[in-house]
Amino acid sequence: MTAHFPDLANAHVFITGGGSGIGAALTEAFLRQKAKVSFVGRSDYSDFADEMKDKTGAKPLFIQCDVTDTKALHAAMDKAVAEQGPLKVQINNAAADTRMDPADVTVEDWDKQIAVNLRHYFFACQKAGALMKDGGSIINFSSASYQIAGEQLAPYVSSNAGILGLTRSLARDWGPRGIRVNAISPGLVLTQKQIEEVHTEDDLADFRMRQCIDKNLYPEDVPGTALFLASDLSRMMTAQCLFIDGGLAFTG
Ketoreductase domain: from which residue to which, for each copy (predicted)? Predict the structure, then answer.
């Protein structure tokens, strides 16, 4: 990462799911911009927070929290503001791309997937809107899966399409208050989970063939776009969705 965003220094950034995968890359990228980073995760990411201090010289504030527990999420955001100062950037990233045959999806399955992949986005945005007294930037992570008809992902894909509607609606509602709301839609990003549990080399070769850029995507390919959307360099951008997918969604 070579780009420097001076206005992000000392800005408070709150990230859901900031301890692994793309979220971990986001946490590190903003710390390297000298931002104050707070993040939540369902698992214990205390060791990761310590690792970030060793790598970047600054330790993020980690609060263990299940994002589907709205009261706990709002309490975590209040705690972060109390300890790190006014909220400038909210990044909603936590997600679960559980694959299931649509014929087997139960009401419980559906509700659980919507809760983590869409419902928490709205209530995190709601709280961020209340905390951003002097404007700010909200970035919602969607997925290119809703553009390419992802297989056995009906609740997840539905959620990610909904995130775009949510982003545009809130951008309209909160634009007069100086709060920008944008989205990022990554393609197939090779997190450790994707490498270990989901995709074979044949899958990856197929995705690369369908992309315009014949290369795998990795978590470190994502944060640069988030830094730009968080920075005042994008001060007149809102209600937009930027794809980081090697050209897959609109050509593959």
Answer: 11-187
